[in-house]
Amino acid sequence: MATEVAKATLAYAALTFLMSLPFSMAPGSLVLADLPDTHLFIWTLAWDAHAFLRQPLSIFDANIYYPFANTLAYSENLIGSALFGAPIIWLTGDPVLAMNLTALLTCVLCGTGAYLLARQVHISPRGAVICGLIFAFAPPRFFRMGQLHMTAVQWIPFSLAFLHAYLQRGRRRYLLFAIGFFSLQALSSGHGAAYLFLSTLMLLGWHVASGRPIAFRQRLRDFGVAGAYLLAPAVWILLPYRIAQSDAGLRRGYVPDALPGIESFLASPA
Fold this sequence. Notes:
mainly alpha
């Protein structure tokens, strides 16, 4: 399996390079779209890289909107993506290069994760390759690389793959991997974390509906202290968002004439 996954990863890396040309030839000098989101997330990665070294325990107190606190929580924090982007910034001083390389890497990892998940549910290697192609390069995701918070959903299939493996085989390390990938997703994209949370509930519901034992006590023992530590980052990042929402009065909603219709939920991007 490891050799299979490695070969698939190399294939997705080559396809990512080819499908994103000419952008992939000059990731330090081009952006996919010169839009406010692009500017915002270049700054976010740069701030995260700075805070990792200077103020890791108060990373959410970003250098905007003084005197408010937790201002990084006014948008996606990208802390998970900064784990890749920060070393690039430290070495090159180029946040544009960091964001672009991180975005390209998400495509590769999306393909690899979807391949792994497909193989875990007993799809053939060829079918798994197709699954990876769809998840990595489907237009609603691939063309959003300038919106790093939307493209960084790569940990969803990894978490689901290990959760499925745990439910099938009962090995504790698979559960811990699933929890760890869940936290990575929560740190990388709140949108992705919401999708993963719902997908996890659906997978657990399918497991129960299939007549398999719940074994609650065993699951709780397997989760244990290690699981709590691994899940802690996903819980911790909720706090600054709740505080920022309260302190700054942040609310989101639709104006009356802009409510999405049923066609929005049936459309391909949704």
